[in-house]
Design the sequence.
């Protein structure tokens, strides 16, 4: 997934700066590396993104349509990274408690209070039955 993201970033950088050289500078890689990324992207997508007939890269209509979707894709990817980090650090999830009524008067509320101090962002669901 990371490779696909870098490839599309190369495409975005190229379209933003109108030349592989500009994309290369932004990405911190060589211009030939950007060209290889773009060739690989076209091959994997099975669409032509650039007209190369003039010796320059001219974005095709397909490239413009693809480019329009990139901000949403990058935003979704960043959201996935945030979710993964939240899971890794225990900031995602919920606590489910089932208890006898007697424990619901002292022990369970104290435990929930302690849990809430540590993980204040996790929902707590309780069920007390007798």
Sequence:
């Amino acid at each position: 997934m990371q490779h696909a993201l870098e490839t599309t970033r190369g495409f975005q950088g190229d379209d933003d700066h109108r030349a592989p050289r500009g994309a290369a500078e932004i990405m911190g890689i060589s211009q030939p590396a950007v060209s290889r990324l773009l060739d690989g992207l076209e091959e994997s997508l099975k669409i032509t993104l650039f007209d190369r007939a003039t010796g320059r890269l001219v974005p095709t209509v397909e490239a413009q349509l693809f480019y329009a979707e990139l901000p949403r894709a990058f935003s979704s990817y960043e959201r996935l990274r945030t979710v993964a980090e939240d899971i890794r650090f225990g900031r995602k999830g919920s606590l489910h408690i089932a208890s006898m009524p007697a424990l619901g008067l002292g022990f369970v509320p104290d435990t929930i209070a302690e849990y809430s101090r540590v993980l204040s962002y996790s929902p707590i669901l309780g069920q007390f039955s007798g």
